[in-house]
Amino acid sequence: MTGPLAGRKVLLRPLEEADAPALFEAVEASRAGLRRRFGWVESARTVEDEVAFVRARSADRQEGGALTFGIFDARGKRLLGVAALDPIVRATSRGQLGLWVRADEQDKGYGVEAGRLAVEHAFRKLALRRLSSRIDPVNRGARKVLQRLGFRYEGCLRQDKRLNHRWVDQECWGILRSEWKPAAGARGRR
Questions:
Q1: Using an 8 Å Cβ cutoff, are 176 and 129 in contact?
Q2: In the chain, N or C: fewer CB atoms in 10 Å?
């Protein structure tokens, strides 16, 4: 079982069904930006859709194939977004990092800190060898977060993904455990 991961600004913890209304509200507040980058946005139309999402992610967590965290403010009161290690492939000791922060809370350092906590967990607790991330090439904010986390640009997959009736490119970023530098003051938080 994965417990909360605490930072200075944010708390990451597995989402619970009780978080579904706050999750829906965060998606609603960010729908325009999320729609440009994620295909799942169109299926997130009600609180019940978010309950189904949380249940599915809980099942993935139980099977060990993914971890999905709510990103909360440091006191655990307000849902700021979602961070995920999905998929986690144990056979090859790798995972994929994804995260988003609600539109009205961006550019405050929440994404970087949430990413650091997730990366630290992936390398220290899950003993993964490699993490990757794919982003929209025009998403400068995501690129800056990945760079601050120590990820390296690995290339661009042209017209790799069908999203909102169009083909979009995907930038590929990655980091190896051997390249990872823990944040100053990291204590192996749990």
A1: yes
A2: N
